[in-house]
Design a protein that fits this description.
6 helices, globular, binds adenosine-5'-diphosphate, binds uridine-5'-diphosphate
Length: 295
């Protein structure tokens, strides 16, 4: 093991292809010590140590539980402008009336979201992503969530198909965009941009930015999923405001929030398998993850 000048990052220790520790040399002697990294599918109890790929080691600890939602927990950190999001395996549907577990979902949704957010950043969509800590946990920029669920549809499905008396899977002449007011007590009612303005949920400038970004997200994701043999039927995204008011993409992009159908077989590879008791729920999530080719 080579002797380092200061604390020198030497190599990553792998087990079963997963990084489980960082080998480090101390300044005084050549004895290497191993900093373990907990890449378990369960949440880490310990301060999380991150190799930021520059040979530096950062620590980031969850402080207080700020919010526990249906699919994620959100923690404060020592940085007032950063949070840690922790993805759960819990699944809910129909306004929380149906509850269950999709084993491994938290890890898949975390890693898939980060993968897609990196792609979107490259295409000019600012996102909350800061750093993936482990399978389930990611550091994100803290935002004030704009209380609008932004839904884009390329094909008829779900509530849209039901409301309009259409079969599912009909290609729409152009993508649609709709808003729901993100409010659990009111069951996320469908609203339009005039309602959003009248209720002061967002300004016109914010609605314009959200609309512009949402269609870019659709273009990028449609093309990307098509390359994986998947049709992007519809999806829901959320945006937030940074302290200076800048609008960025937040929350997640995953089989929980997108309808993803195999291009050839039209098999559903998303949460509809859970909602509709179609079986093979975990297999569907794993199949999407496999096609993403995330290492
Ligand atoms: P829900 O609130 O619908 O049950 P989740 O279980 O996914 O949803 O909880 C995560 C919560 O964190 C959501 O309410 C989401 O709007 C919020 N959130 C996502 N990203 C951020 C962020 N960067 N800053 C602050 N809140 C966020
Ligand atoms: N969606 C979501 N969260 C919600 C509501 C919808 O992620 O609270 C997603 C859903 O997975 C689908 C899209 O938004 O990809 C459109 O959903 P729809 O309005 O058809 O409602 P649903 O049929 O899912 O109730």
């Amino acid at each position: 093991m080579p002797k380092g000048k200061k604390r020198k990052f030497v190599e990553k220790r792998k087990r079963c292809g997963r990084i489980v520790g960082l080998a480090v040399c101390s300044e005084k002697d050549s004895i290497a010590f191993i900093i373990p990294i907990y890449y378990n599918f369960s949440e880490s109890k310990y301060p999380i140590i991150v190799d930021n790929k520059k040979g530096q080691v950062n620590t980031m600890e969850k402080k207080e539980l700020l919010y526990e939602g249906k699919a994620k927990k959100v923690y404060t950190t020592k940085h007032p402008d950063q949070l840690i999001v922790s993805y759960k395996d819990d699944a809910t549907a129909f306004d929380g009336q149906k509850k269950g577990t999709i084993v491994g979902k938290g890890a898949i949704n975390n890693r898939m979201t980060n993968h897609i957010f990196k792609l979107l950043e490259q295409k000019g969509v600012p996102t909350h992503l800061v750093e993936e800590l482990n399978d389930r946990e990611t550091v994100v920029k803290k935002v004030e969530i704009v209380p609008l669920e932004v839904i884009i549809r390329n094909y008829s499905a779900g509530s849209f198909a039901k409301k309009l008396g259409m079969e599912e899977g009909i290609k729409l002449a152009c993508p649609t965009l709709e808003f729901s007011y993100k409010n659990d007590d009111l069951h996320d009612p469908f609203i339009n941009s005039y309602y959003a303005l009248a209720l002061k949920l967002a300004t016109q400038e914010e609605i314009d930015a959200i609309t512009k970004y949402a269609f870019v997200v659709n273009d990028v994701m449609q093309e990307y999923f098509a390359s994986l043999g998947i049709d992007l039927i519809d999806f829901k995204i959320e945006f937030g405001r940074l302290a200076d008011g800048t609008i960025i993409l937040a929350d997640e992009v995953s089989p929980d929030t997108c309808r993803l159908w195999d291009k050839e077989t039209h098999e559903k590879l998303d949460k509809d398998r859970f909602r509709r008791d179609l079986g093979n729920v975990e297999d569907a999530y794993n199949e999407v993850f496999r096609r993403l080719g995330i290492q």
